[in-house]
Design a protein that fits this description.
- There is one protein chain.
- By secondary structure, this protein is an alpha+beta fold.
- The chain has two domains: about 100 residues, Metalloproteases ("zincins"), catalytic domain (Zincin-like, 2-Layer Sandwich), CATH 3.30.2010.10; about 45 residues, no CATH class.
- The chain is built from five helices and six strands.
- It has a three-stranded mixed β-sheet.
- It starts with a helix and ends with a strand.
- One of its GO terms (biological process) is response to stress.
- InterPro entries: SprT-like_domain.
- This is SprT-like domain-containing protein.
Length: about 160
C-alpha cells in the first residue's frame, strides 16, 4: 500500500480538523478501483477507493489534487449531511477554504483502455457477425441462447476470437 497516499489522506484530515475545529472519523482506504475514475468516496460506508494505476502514473498531481478532492467529499458529508450535492457549494468551500485548491470535478489523467477479447458468433445472414464479450460467451457455454433478430437463427460460435 502506498505510504505517501495514506500520509496525504491523514494530512488532509488534519487540515480539515484544524480549519473546522472538530474531529472527523477516518475512512477505510482501498486501492481496488480500476477504469477511468481516479478516486471514489463511499460516504455512507466511510470508505475511500483509489485507482492505484492512475496514482502510479500521476503521483504528484494525484497527491496534490485527487486525494484532497475525495477527502473533501467525506468531510462535507460528515459536516453537512447526506442531502448535499456531490460537487456543490459545501464541497467547493472545503476545496477552496481548507485545501486552497480549485474545485475541479474531474481529473485529466490519460487513461489506458484495456484490451478485451471478443468471441465471434454468426447466424445465417451474409453480414451476420456478432462479437460477444467474455461474459456473454460464458453464458452461452452454460446453455444461454442468443438469436439473430433478422433471420431468427440461433447464433453459433465460430471458434474465432479477436482482441480489441
Amino acid at each position: 500500500m502506498p505510504e505517501q497516499l495514506h500520509a496525504r489522506v491523514e494530512a488532509c484530515y488534519q487540515l480539515a480538523e484544524a480549519f473546522f475545529k472538530q474531529r472527523f472519523a477516518r475512512p477505510e482506504v482501498s486501492f481496488k478501483l480500476r477504469g477511468q475514475k481516479a478516486g471514489v468516496a463511499h460516504l455512507t460506508e466511510n470508505k475511500l477507493r483509489f485507482n492505484l494505476q492512475l496514482y502510479r502514473e500521476n503521483r504528484e498531481d494525484f497527491l496534490r489534487q485527487t486525494v484532497p478532492h475525495e477527502v473533501a467529499h467525506m468531510v462535507a458529508h460528515q459536516l453537512f449531511g447526506p442531502r448535499i450535492q456531490p460537487h456543490g457549494e459545501e464541497w467547493q468551500l472545503i476545496m477552496r477554504g481548507v485545501y486552497e485548491l480549485a474545485p475541479q470535478r474531474c481529473h485529466n489523467y490519460e487513461v489506458q483502455r484495456r484490451k478485451v477479447s471478443r468471441f465471434i458468433y454468426r447466424c445465417s445472414c451474409p453480414e451476420g457477425e456478432f462479437p460477444f464479450s467474455a461474459q456473454r460467451h460464458a453464458k452461452v457455454a452454460k446453455g444461454q441462447r442468443y438469436y439473430c433478430r433478422r433471420c431468427k437463427v440461433t447464433l453459433q460460435f465460430t471458434g474465432q476470437q479477436r482482441v480489441e
